[in-house]
Write a structure and sequence with these properties.
By secondary structure, this protein is α+β, with helices and mostly antiparallel strands. It contains ten helices and five strands; from the N terminus they run ααααββββααβαααα.
Length: 285
């Protein structure tokens, strides 16, 4: 006769198995989605950027396409466009003129071309975003690129500049001297690489927690990819939930075997038995 504890366990067991199976299917779907996005970006970048160029030349090739490429369609309702869809950001004129989505397009093409790049958010004193640019790693230096204005920051001698160098007001003024109407307030006193405002976790003070736990977490380029590419975000989330439910299933299995002593469906044993039966040579009578 089943006790209330046994009934609760069986409900939890089957619910966990159902959620685990659903998570695995979601991982397969999101993995296929992310693969198709990467294939699209790889084909797009291969058509624009010759593979034999150096990193700096690849950056210039991407910026040149953004500036003078083929005519792009104009969306009748740009507010309805998917801002984190790489295909959308690469193909609509309005999105290539906005700093956030223009930087998205640049980063997707740069990474697909083999260039190490990451997002750089310029912040106001109130920690709100005032402009978005990109950093590209070339010769062990993170140089700054502004995809919205289609240029690489350089000094009077043509040397590329880093974020630290642009914090110098004289260097910043020298770098933007030939850029018409470049806003002088786009300075580098405060910045971030990851926009945690996209996550509905403001009350948890996630940035302060991560700053204490891992001071250099914001410098990692992978965070921006997770938060700015929806297909990759889904893949990471569903992979994490699959790992969680798999661990929960293991704990429940241990509890059933060691504490409740109830029979349950042993998936691994059934798979191994089926595999052995399939591979075993049948006996001839």
């Amino acid at each position: 006769m089943q006790t209330p504890r046994h009934r609760i366990f069986r409900a939890a067991w089957w619910a966990t198995n159902f959620l685990l199976a659903s998570s695995i299917l979601a991982v397969i779907y999101s993995g296929g989605w992310e693969y198709s996005v990467r294939q699209y970006l790889r084909g797009f970048s291969d058509a624009l950027v010759p593979s034999n160029l150096g990193s700096e030349q690849k950056v210039e090739a991407i910026l040149s396409w953004m500036k003078t490429g083929a005519p792009r369609p104009v969306a009748a309702y740009p507010d309805q466009l998917a801002l984190r869809d790489p295909e959308t950001t690469l193909n609509y004129k309005q999105l290539l003129e906005v700093c956030g989505t223009a930087t998205n397009a640049f980063l997707n093409l740069a990474r697909s071309s083999g260039v190490t790049a990451r997002r750089l958010l310029l912040l106001t004193p109130e920690r709100t975003v005032k402009h978005v640019v990109a950093e590209v790693q070339i010769d062990n230096r993170w140089i700054v690129v502004d995809p919205a204005f289609r240029f690489v920051f350089r000094d009077a001698k043509g040397r590329t500049l880093t974020r630290e160098e642009l914090q110098n007001p004289k260097m910043f003024a020298e770098a933007i001297r030939d850029i018409p109407n470049y806003p002088i307030e786009y300075t580098y006193e405060q910045f971030a690489h990851v926009r945690l405002a996209r996550l509905p976790l403001k009350t948890l003070h996630l940035r302060q927690f991560l700053d204490r736990l891992w001071p250099s977490w914001d410098e990692s380029g992978g965070w921006g990819l997770v938060l700015e590419r929806e297909s990759f975000l889904m893949l990471v989330l569903f992979t994490s939930t699959t790992a969680f439910f798999l661990m929960l299933r293991t704990v429940l299995g241990w509890y059933a075997d060691r504490r409740l002593h109830v029979r349950r469906f042993h998936l691994r044993e059934h798979v191994m038995r089926a595999g052995a039966a399939f591979l075993k040579t049948p006996e001839m009578k």
